[in-house]
Design a protein that fits this description.
This protein is of the alpha+beta class and 383 residues long. The protein has 13 helices and nine strands. A hairpin with a 5-residue loop joins strand 5 and strand 6 (82-89).
């Protein structure tokens, strides 16, 4: 889920991550065309953009946070579906996002404090031609769409097992079914988030609620199971609602707007999810099943990478070498916390000490830095 309110520990992790991934200081458009570089300057009260009209195709959004709050920036369709995003941009840091944008009207939204609808600017992409794309990337998009659908299809039976245990009032069975029911979601979370309205229903934490929002979904039930240690009548209703919302996700996955750059950016977003939620222990604060989610996020990021890898390797072989190394290193590190490499039975995260958490954080940061360059690598060859 999107991290919303950051603790001191999380803010430190974000600062370290954005320092590594904020590579806009020498920003130049991935297409070599300055008309396709849009500077976005975010403050606590403004969202300034360098141009409100630009050519359709591959566009680079060069973001700088000059405010005092952690912010996030979205490029949105008119119906608020997400075209591209970058979250957890720390004060005084820079990030860049390469996106494939078709001709049409869009909104750029800066969200200081990462809450609410954001400060919005209307922009337009002009021209009738779509971005030029290597045919292998069309194959990658089709394969990823199938993967996302398979994950949603596989999640529903596991979620129904979890919900059935809640409805039966079986505390231990519900606890056992909880983490497995989330793996498919964690692998493909950026796709679900792209719709805008599903994630807040099923995966929001208490500190991520907007004013007036009712708390529903996995984490509300997680609190009942592990902290309250009882299942109420309301929990049983919430379990039914979870299945309704996940079925909605399952039915909409195939309609998601997916491009090679959104796949690459989504992989980076999954690493951000790990850095700001799993490594800190904030995501699964009651169940301490963070490492299960952690592994799901890494698997989802790696799936996108592997599908894009043939083109990325041709365009930027050094980047691929680095990504191969860092994915392998992080997976090896995660394997330390499970006895069976084929299972998702990981060590409870409250048993993982500060030193080990620091090692996991370093592994995530080492992967996130080169992964932030994947979108540009599938667009153009490195010079």
């Amino acid at each position: 889920m999107r991290a919303v309110r950051l603790s001191v520990v999380t803010a430190t992790a974000v600062a370290a991550l954005t320092a590594l991934t904020g590579c806009t200081e020498k920003a130049s458009s991935s297409s070599g065309d300055s008309d396709r570089v849009i500077d976005v300057t975010a403050t606590d009260s403004k969202c300034e953009i360098s141009k409100k009209e630009f050519p359709a195709g591959h566009v680079e959004f060069a973001i700088e946070n000059k405010g005092s709050k952690v912010t996030e920036v979205y490029v949105l369709f008119p119906d608020d579906r997400i075209v591209a995003e970058r979250e957890n941009i720390g004060p005084g840091t820079k990030q860049k996002v390469t996106a494939e944008v078709k001709a049409g009207d869009y909104t750029i939204a800066c969200k200081p404090g990462m809450k609410g609808d954001g400060i919005r600017q209307q922009v337009k992409a002009t021209g009738g031609s779509a971005a030029k794309r290597d045919p292998r990337l069309d194959t990658a998009v089709a394969a990823y769409r199938q993967y996302a659908q398979e994950q949603a299809d596989a999640t529903l039976p596991l979620a129904k097992t979890f919900a059935a245990a809640v409805r039966a009032g079986d505390l231990e069975a519900a606890k056992k079914a909880y983490a497995p029911s989330r793996i498919g979601w964690e692998r493909t979370e950026p796709v679900a988030e792209s719709f805008g309205d599903i994630d807040p229903k099923v995966d929001v934490r208490a500190d991520g609620l907007e004013d007036g929002q009712k708390w529903t979904g996995w984490h509300r039930l997680e609190k009942s199971l592990w902290q309250d240690k009882k299942i109420t009548a309301e929990d049983k209703t919430l379990a039914d609602q979870l299945i309704t919302d996940l079925t909605d996700w399952q039915n909409r996955v195939g309609k998601a707007d997916i491009t090679p750059t959104s796949m690459a950016n989504g992989a980076k977003e999954l690493l951000d999810e790990v850095a700001t939620g799993k490594v800190t222990g904030e995501e699964e604060r009651y169940s301490h099943t963070d490492l299960v989610d952690f592994k799901g996020n890494v698997e989802g990021a790696e799936k996108s990478y592997e599908l894009l890898k043939p083109v990325a390797k041709e365009n930027n072989p050094a980047l691929v070498t680095k990504l191969d190394k860092q994915f392998a290193a992080l997976n090896t590190l995660l394997d330390k916390y499970r006895a069976d490499k084929t299972s998702y039975d990981f060590t409870s995260y409250d048993k993982v000490g500060d030193g080990d958490r620091k090692q996991l954080s370093d592994g995530v940061n080492a992967l996130a830095e080169p992964l932030s360059k994947l979108a540009a690598a599938v667009v153009t060859k490195s010079s």
